[in-house]
Specification:
Two copies of one chain form a homodimer.
Chain A lengths: L8 E6 L4 E7 L2 E8 L9 H12 L4 E5 L13 E2 L4 H6 L2 E4 L2 E3 L3 E3 L4 E3 L2 H10 L7 E5 L4 E7 L2 E8 L1 H10 L15 H10 L4 H13 L8 H20 L4 E5 L2 H13 L3 E5 L2 H14 L1
Parallel strand pairs in A: 1-4, 4-7, 5-8, 10-13, 13-14
Antiparallel strand pairs in A: 1-2, 2-3, 6-7, 8-9, 10-11, 11-12
InterPro entries (chains A, B): DGOK, DGOK_C, DGOK_N
Pfam families (chains A, B): DGOK
Organism (chains A, B): Sphingomonas qilianensis
Chain lengths: 289, 289
């Protein structure tokens, strides 16, 4: 059974809570649709896929994201880095002759995984948005820092930066202090400087102590904490990377914080509009399969 | 108004949720009592103190702990380090001629505070449990690492190690993996080794990735996470300290984890039974006031 996708197909970026469908004809996106049918709200994947074909056209389909995880339709094994478009295409999980799931990418030591981000990162290269040799950042709940060499993913690190910030903001000692706005100003930069120490558990208690000693207003505490977390993450990654420039795939708000942190730490940062990246990646995979 | 305490008085170790009363006669503890009247469950402190005197004797009183915080009776200002018994005695917050609250201790750069721990740490010196020049550790929700020189607290660092572990165990991505037992075995030591990298946000995601890649059983994940947090904390503190021996004031279970981490990192660790430390400290303060 060989999956043949080609240049005319339905691509689905199928996440945990949402999905987006792209109708691709002759290598170009002609229509998109978005709905709330993420993998956690779908029980019958064959029926769901049939419904998509009924709505958008009876075409081959390429599915990416959490649909290929153990909470999705079927687990698509990870492809080991280094991995580019060709390796993803070769590693497709074939459901039937016209339907396939894009694999995630893994590294073994230290253990790390991605699922969904790989299409966007490699698509950004395909679209000419980032160089073939680069450090690419995808901020978020679990921030990915991806090393690209020769247009392939050669390694990456995931940091729970966004999740830790959300936990601290919602639960525990510091929650009451962290209600303020986060902007890349002085308090954020002071947090990035503190983050350089890479001593997170102690630096976090310092937020409490600074309040008790009257050293920082709580209006600035959230920005400081964000800077601390993002700064610690960025400092660790820049120390390890061959690159001192980071290409940041994100919206301007969150992306702007990463730009500020990388620049404060002496690196160069480019904020990349990532809207075209997923489709460029999935079209390239379709062409290779 | 001068507070005179002397060697016969009531000492109260008055925390957030519990308090312990020590009846001290001629410098010796003759009776103790414990109840659930922590500061968060007391509205009328004068009445509560009067009731303690009615029950245990109409004596001078020294109160320590959260009773002197902004959620307690009245905020007792912090004494700046370096601080020993004499500085705490000189900094007592005098409520009336027979009642005083022991101040906390602060350091300014980087900001840090303690309130309650100072009596135990300095009492451990008074009791001969730890040397006058030493690194003393009080593990817990907010772990204190205290530098002693000449029998005085010269500096300290608080790490939110225990709180972070509790947050991760209860909320978020890793919670489902972290239900296992924590013992100082191989998985704990592997966590300490990972903690050396001082890259917490990334190391935490590695716990998830190791599961997805089949590299570690979830039965070991909690011990690994505990080792990661304690190891990162201990590595940062040992790197900064003049000492390579740590005196750990804790129960054998939690204290045993810190012993294992410090020893794995090449330091020497002594587990100290801290029961006598608080009373030795508060008796010394009474003698000085």
């Amino acid at each position: 059974m060989v999956v043949s996708i080609g240049d005319t197909f339905l691509a689905v970026d199928w996440g945990t809570t949402n999905r987006r469908v792209f109708v691709i004809e002759q290598g170009r996106v002609v229509r998109t649709a978005r709905d709330g049918q993420g993998v956690t709200s779908v029980d019958d994947f064959p029926a769901s896929v049939a419904a998509l074909r009924a709505e958008h056209g009876d075409l081959p389909m390429l599915l990416a994201g959490m649909v290929g995880s153990n909470i999705g339709w079927r687990p698509a094994p990870y492809v080991s880095a280094p991995a580019g478009i060709a390796e993803l295409a070769a590693g497709l999980l074939r459901i039937d002759a016209r339907t396939a799931i894009v694999p995630g990418v893994s590294v073994d030591h230290p253990a790390d995984v991605m699922r969904g981000e790989e299409v966007q990162v490699l698509g950004a290269v395909e679209a000419g948005l980032v160089p073939r040799d680069a450090l690419v950042v995808q901020p978020g709940t679990h921030c990915k820092w991806v090393e690209l060499a020769g247009g392939r993913i050669t390694g990456f690190t995931t940091a729970m930066t966004g999740e830790l910030f959300a936990l601290l903001r919602t639960h525990g000692l510091l929650a009451a202090q962290l209600g303020g706005e986060v902007t890349p100003g002085d308090a954020f930069r002071a947090g990035v400087e503190e983050g350089r120490k890479r001593d997170l558990a102690a630096s976090l208690f310092g937020i409490r102590a600074a309040k008790l000693l009257g050293q920082r207003d709580d209006a600035d505490a959230a920005a400081f904490a964000s800077g601390l977390l993002i700064g610690g993450d960025a400092a660790a990654r820049l120390a390890k990377s061959r690159h001192d420039a980071a290409y940041i795939l994100a919206d301007p708000v969150l992306g702007g914080l990463y730009v500020a942190a990388v620049e404060y730490l002496g690196g160069t940062a480019y904020l990349i509009d990532s809207h075209a990246a997923f489709t460029a990646g999935i079209i390239a995979i379709g062409n290779h399969s």
